[in-house]
Amino acid sequence: MHPKLRSLDIRAIVHDDSPYILLRDPQRLTEQQLLVPQPLAAVLAFFDGNTSIDEMVDAFRRRYHITLPTGMVSQLVAALDEVVMLDNARAQARRTAVLNDYRRAPFRPPALAGAGYPADAKALWRLLQDYLETSDVAEDADPDWSRPIGLLSPHIDYARGGEVYARVWKRAAQAARAAELVILLGADHYGADLLTLTRQNYATPYGVLPTDTALVDQLAAVIGAEAAFAGELRHRGEHSLELVAIWLHHMRGGQPVPVAPILTGSFHPFMLNGDTPANDPTISAALEVLRRASAGKRTLIVASGDLAHVGPAFGGNPLDSAGRRALRAADDELIGAMRGGDAAGFFSAIRRVQNRNNVCGLAPIYLTLRLLGKGRGEQSGYAICPADAQNTSVVTITGMLFK
C-alpha cells in the first residue's frame, strides 16, 4: 500500500493542552474531522502515493531520528481511510456519489443558515435591514448601464463586517435591484484551481437565485470542462459566494436574478514564476466570455473578497501599533489602485511583497478590475476586524462601487 493524502484543510491547534494537527475536508466528502498528534503528524509528509508504510517508517527515522512503530502508522492510514481522506478508490466512489446528489438537488442549500445568520427569512430581513438603516450613506442614483457596474463586498461574517456590507450594498442598491445578470466572483479559500464553476442554483432564505447555465457552459468551454468542475463540490461549503448572494437577494426584495457563481483560486503561482495573470490565456478567454455575456444587459459584477489576514491566527507575528500602521498603508495602496481601476497596479502591489498580508480577495478583485477596464472606484467603508481574543490578529475589509 502506498497511501496518498487528499487535498485537505490542515491546521495546527491545541487540544487539552497538547498540540495537534486538525484535518478537514473542504470538499466535504466527509463531515468528520481528524485530530493527529503533532509529533505523529510529521509522517503525513510521506503520504505522497509513492511511499509504502515501511518506507515511511524508515524515512521518518532517517529524517527525525525517531523510530515509529509500523503499527502506529498503519492505524493512522486506517483512520484516514475511514474518514475518506486518502486519495483512493473509496474516495473516488464517495466523490461520485456526493457530486451526483449535489447536482440532482434543485439548488445548493445555504451552508451557513442558522449558524452564520438567521435561517428564517423574516429574521434575516430584520438583521440586514438594521445594518442598512443605521448606515449614513445614500443610494447611488440612476446607474449608468452603458457598461457593467462593479461592486466589492466583504465576505467576513456579518457580526464583524455588517457595517461595511451595509455601506456598499446600500450605495449599490439601485444597481442590485435593476440588474439583469449578476456575475459573482468569490475567493476559493480551499482550492488552487484557477476558476471553478457549478451549474447548480444558489438558494438563500429568501428563495432561489437561478444560475445562468448557458453562460456557465460557455465558460467551461474555454476553461476546459475537467478543470472547470474538478473542485465543484467546494461550492457546497464556500462562504464567499453565499454571504454576498444573500445581500444581493435582500437588496432585490427577494426577487430572483440570473447569476454566474464563480470561485476564483489562488494566484500564488504568479507570485513565484515572474509572470502575471494578464498573460494567462485561460483567464483572458474567460473574461472575454463574460464581457460578451454582459453586452446589452444590465450587468452587475460582484467581487467577494476581504483584504489582509495577519497575526498569529494566520501564522504570523502578533500585530503591534507599528504593524497596524504598516498594514493600513498597504491597504491604502490597494484601495488607491482599485479607485483607479488599475488591475495591474493592484496585482503588482501584492506581488511586490509576496502577498505577505494574505489578501484573500486578490483573485476576485483583480478579475473584476480586468472585466470593468479603466473606471472609477468609490470606496464605501473600511474596517479592521479582530481575529483573536488578544486582538493581535486582524482581518481588514473594505467596500467599493465601480462605475
Which key phrases capture this entry?
Outer Surface Protein A, domain 3; Protocatechuate 4,5-dioxygenase, Chain B; alpha+beta; 2 domains; 8-stranded mixed beta sheet; 42% helix
Describe the structure in your own words.
It is globular and about 70 Å long. The mean pLDDT is 95. The chain contains 16 helices and 13 strands. The protein has 403 residues and is an alpha+beta fold. Strands 4, 5, 6, 9, 10, 11, 12 and 13 form an 8-stranded mixed beta sheet that branches. The chain has 2 domains: 9-101, Outer Surface Protein A, domain 3 (Alpha-Beta Complex); 109-402, LigB-like (Protocatechuate 4,5-dioxygenase, Chain B), CATH 3.40.830.10. A hairpin with a 2-residue loop joins strand 7 (202-204) and strand 8. The protein has helices spanning 38-41, 53-64, 70-82, 89-104, 121-133, 158-171, 173-178, 213-223, 225-229, 234-237, 239-251, 268-272, 281-294, 321-339, 343-352, 362-372; strands spanning 9-15, 18-24, 34-37, 149-153, 181-187, 195-196, 202-204, 207-209, 259-264, 299-304, 309-310, 377-386, 394-402.
The total domain count is 2
The CATH superfamily title of the largest domain: LigB-like
Q: In terms of per-residue confidence, which ranges show pLDDT below 50 for 5 or more consecutive residues?
A: none
- Spatial extent as radius of gyration: 22 Å
In short:
With 403 residues, the chain is of the alpha+beta class.
Topology (SSEs and partners):
Elements: E1 9-15, E2 18-24, E3 34-37, H1 38-41, H2 53-64, H3 70-82, H4 89-104, H5 121-133, E4 149-153, H6 158-171, H7 173-178, E5 181-187, E6 195-196, E7 202-204, E8 207-209, H8 213-223, H9 225-229, H10 234-237, H11 239-251, E9 259-264, H12 268-272, H13 281-294, E10 299-304, E11 309-310, H14 321-339, H15 343-352, H16 362-372, E12 377-386, E13 394-402
